[in-house]
Specification:
This protein is an alpha+beta fold. 27% of the residues lie in helices and 33% in strands.
């Protein structure tokens, strides 16, 4: 145990975590040269294409320090706010953290959020300044920020370049010297904390766990404490680049356990594994359940694929515990699921993974947040979907979730960022100068306002320099209305939204204009209307494709032409009554990108 070190790498997005992990693996000769590729721990194609880490990745390294072999368990974590749940789970399996900060950008919002998470778990923090080889690096300024934030000495900060490998030796020796070995009792009953899991179609569910107390051997009879189900530990081992089987794993080890479980609901992240014969008294206080921030409906394009979609989402949930779902149905789209996500990027990634990993083609409805509706009878209802709203006459008032948003930016962009936040119904709570030209703005604003395009707009008006982080505070009373879209008088429930009354007219008009562009023309006029209750607030018409029925009349009496036109008019009237309008998938996506 004294020669084990468990640590993770935490940072803001794009500060060089995965590249630094590559250098550490190279220095400890964990990977052979022929296996090497950039961002080797990012094993999803999606991660490589976008250049972001989506999943935490654990790997064990062996490092010789002063003649003694040490086992270093590294967990590389994501940096985007939507995947902060991955970071919190990784932190729970570690005793120390490398805090990586970009020498060209300094401390950003997610750096601070991840650091506080690590401090709450009493992790030993090793500050690292990365990208020192860049010409626009500003090490002295960034060191001042780190000393202010962490309260360490300037000499403790390691200057590195993950690209060239500078400073990596010092990082390894500091990990050995500063991060404490795992605390635990090898003679106590087994307690192992599950911090992640994946589904393998041949071997069932593989649980990744950290052994907090006791030891486990291959073939032991174990049970999961939350469900009480018992299994044999068919295979155990540590995580190298591939799984490395072991006969015995002891206290402090981070590895995997395969029990042959096939049902995804039986393995929960945060659960405790213990022995059947000599069980531990209580489970480890693991993680609190994550609250989804954004809700959207997911429906299979082909209604027959409903069960396949359920199985796919369940398997994805194993690998991503922050995804939640419940079945729902829609008049326009049939049977599907109401899914909860941590943010818009999270929703986009889940949709992409369903397509790539499970070949599922899905339609996603307009995302929204969950509201509390108080009825005139004094009842309180949680509404995740606009169609679940009670009749207007029964509603006393509606409350919506509010967040505290922290934006760190250069001082030249403060004015335009304030305008953006105030347009989104934000209230300025605090304005602090961190350094001469870096400002931290704190706003209180409704969560529903940042769901759509807030982050994109923030990045564009600050030329990419603003960083953004938020946390949920409480529900507050709001003046909200349900905006419906009607096609030929028929409501399309998948396009309904709950929206602030002051923004409803403008949003309704934009949606009608957008749908007019996207809905293909039919042989009859299609009326697109936006309505609040019975009141129509906007209308556009998709004109009919007209067949020239009088083409064959080459002269003669006008009544012949009139007779043909009347006949066509009756046909069009009948067609409008029985014809239905197909809404293309682009229409649902376009609503998300409305400016």
């Amino acid at each position: 145990m004294n020669y084990i070190r468990n640590f993770c790498i935490i940072a803001h997005i794009d500060h060089g975590k995965s590249t630094l992990a590559d250098r550490l693996l190279e220095k400890t000769h964990t990977i052979a040269e022929r296996e090497y590729q950039d961002q080797i721990l990012d094993n999803m194609d999606l991660e490589r294409e976008r250049g972001i880490t989506i999943k935490s990745h654990a790997i064990q390294m062996e490092y010789i320090h002063e003649g003694q072999k040490y086992y270093l368990n590294l967990i590389d974590t994501p940096g985007h706010v939507d995947f902060s749940n991955e970071v919190s789970r990784s932190i729970a399996a570690c005793e120390g953290a490398l805090l990586v900060i970009d020498a060209t950008q300094g401390i950003q919002a997610q750096t601070i959020a991840n650091l506080y998470m690590a401090i709450d778990h009493n992790l030993e923090i090793i500050p690292v300044i990365n990208k020192m080889d860049m010409t626009n690096a500003m090490p002295e300024e960034v060191k001042d920020q780190i000393v202010d934030l962490v309260g360490c000495n300037r000499d403790d900060i390691i200057e590195t370049s993950a690209k060239t490998g500078m400073g990596v030796d010092r990082i390894l020796s500091d990990i050995v010297n500063k991060i404490p070995p795992p605390q635990g009792n090898p003679d106590a009953p087994l307690q192992a904390l599950i911090f992640d899991s994946i589904f393998n179609s041949f071997r069932g569910i593989i649980a990744y766990c950290k052994i907090v107390n006791g030891t486990i051997s291959r073939g032991d009879r174990v049970k999961f404490m939350s469900t009480g189900h018992e299994y044999n530990a068919e295979d155990i081992g540590v995580l190298k680049l591939k799984q490395d089987p072991r006969e015995v794993m002891g206290t402090g080890d981070v590895g995997y356990i395969i029990t042959g479980v096939k049902v995804s609901s039986e393995v929960r992240v945060g659960d405790t594994i213990t022995h059947v014969i000599n069980p531990c008294e209580k489970a480890i206080s693991g993680f609190e359940n994550v609250k989804p921030m954004v809700f959207a409906g997911m429906y299979p394009v082909d209604a027959d694929e409903y069960e396949d979609l359920r199985n796919s989402i369940e398997k994805l949930q194993l690998n991503d515990a922050s995804l939640s779902f419940i079945p729902e149905s829609s008049a326009a789209l049939g049977f599907g699921f109401r899914c909860g996500f941590l943010g818009l990027l999270h929703m986009e990634i889940i949709q992409e993974r369903l397509d790539r990993e499970f070949n599922m083609d899905v339609i996603t409805t307009v995302p929204n947040v969950s509201f509390k509706v108080f009825t005139t009878r004094g009842e309180e209802i949680d509404v995740h979907n606009p169609s679940g709203l009670p009749p207007v006459t029964n509603i006393d008032h509606i409350e919506e979730p509010y967040i505290v948003a922290k934006v760190i930016t250069l001082s030249e962009y403060v004015g335009s960022i304030m305008n953006l936040c105030i347009d989104k119904r934000g209230t300025l709570k605090n304005h602090v100068h961190l350094t001469r030209n870096r400002v931290e703005l704190t706003f209180e604003m409704p969560l529903s306002e940042i769901v759509f395009d807030f982050y994109d707009k923030l990045k564009s008006i600050s030329k990419g320099y603003a960083s953004f982080d938020y946390y949920y505070t409480s529900y507050q009373r709001a003046d909200l209305v349900r905006l419906d879209l009607l096609l030929n008088g028929e409501m399309v429930d998948a396009l309904s939204t709950l929206i602030y009354r002051g923004h409803a007219y403008e949003f309704g008009r934009k949606m009608c204009v957008k749908l007019k562009e996207l809905i293909p023309r039919q042989q009859f006029d299609i009326a697109i209307q936006a309505a609040i209750g019975a009141k129509i607030i906007a209308r556009e018409t998709v004109k009919a494709v007209r067949k020239d029925v009088t083409a064959k009349c080459y002269g003669g009496d006008i009544t012949r032409k009139r007779k043909l036109l009347e006949k066509q008019k009756k046909g069009k009237k009948r067609m409008r009554q029985i014809g239905n309008v197909e809404v293309p998938q682009q229409a649902f996506l376009a609503v998300l990108k409305l400016d």
